[in-house]
Design goal:
By secondary structure, the protein is an alpha+beta fold. It is built from 2 helices and 3 strands; from the N terminus they run αβββα.
Amino acid sequence: MADATTGAAGRYRAYLLRLWPEVSRAAGDETAVSVTVTWRATLEDVQTREVHGFASLDALCRFLRATAHPDEG
């Protein structure tokens, strides 16, 4: 039986995902209306231990799409 990491042309990936909210307020304004929450993320490759950091969920999704479909621009 083929190893899962070499099957399907070596496209198998496994990551540890960490997500956390970063809360910011407008300068000098303590009201709840001015609160902004930005989600941050890291992905750690479980085989290589390489860590990728992301400043937004959009950036995380772009990375995953590019990893899953490397031949698409």
